[in-house]
Amino acid sequence: MFLLSKIVALFSQPLHWVIVLQVLTLIKATRSPRMARACATGALALLLVIGWLPIPDLLIRPLEQRYAEIAPDADLHAFDGVVVLGGAMEAGYIAMDHRQPLLTDGAGRMTAIVAIAQKYPSMPIVFTGGEGDFFGTGPSEARRAGNFFTTMHLSESRIVLEDRSRNTYENAVFTGELAGIDKRKHWLLVTSAWHMPRAMATFEKAGWNVTAYPVDFRTGNSTPLTRYSLAMGAQRWQLVLRETIGLAAYRLLGRI
Asked: Where along the chain do its domains lie?
């Protein structure tokens, strides 16, 4: 399933579809000029659609709004601990060449934890994330996260690291197997808002008592119609396609 998820992730990148259409254009250029023109036109149209941000945002928004955003000043004393999912630390092969902890565009997962840890100094923090790259090298994401927490002056005694998991399902299962972790207690679950529906369903299926703490929002209540960016559009299309496929696959496998 891990290998299959990587293959699906590869084909969920919409710019790859543009490449396929361009290759078909070259193949059909001599034998079928009409088909070649259709493929070239399709590639151009796809590029135009990919970059218009209101469309992918319209698909991402329902995922992000599934669970209510928790205000930074909310009272969290009722919770016994917080679990944060990996996905916010730069890949291991890059991290190996730098001394500073490197964050990705999912950095909201880490900054939220630091804020919670400072406000609630006795609350345990569990970070779950191993090596997400298929041919990954270097330290696990959990170890990289541990280095980040150290630079934020958080006590190592309150940090629990799970470094075997490679996906959301393994996050839930392997973290529940850690010594001293009681899934029946009341835990906060921290991950990106667009990923929260799958994360919550997976953890609940695995027997966790969790409350959603969504972070790393990518959309607002609306997106101006003038917003256009090919780079951002490609990223957001890949995000929503990957998450939609992930939800469908987890339902099919009985993981949620």
From this structure: 2-63+228-253, 69-215
In this prediction the pTM is: 0.90
3-state secondary structure of 112: helix
CB 69 within 8 A of CB 214: yes
Query: What token pair was written down for 215?
Result: 């972070």
- pLDDT score of 91: 82
Q: Which of 245, 181, 237 is nearest to 48 (CA)?
A: 237
| 69 CB burial (10 A radius; 0-12, 13-18, 19+) | middle
For 239-249, the pLDDT digits (tens) are 999 999 999 99
Looking only at the bridges linking them, the beta strands covering 125-128 and 81-85 are: parallel
How far, in Å, CA of 46 to CA of 38, rounded?
A: 12
d(Cα 144, Cα 247) in Å, to the nearest integer?
28
Give me the residues of the chain with pLDDT under 50, please.
Answer: none
CATH 3.90.226.10 for domain 69-215: no
Q: Determine the Cα–Cα distance for residues 95 and 138; give it in Å rounded to an integer.
A: 8
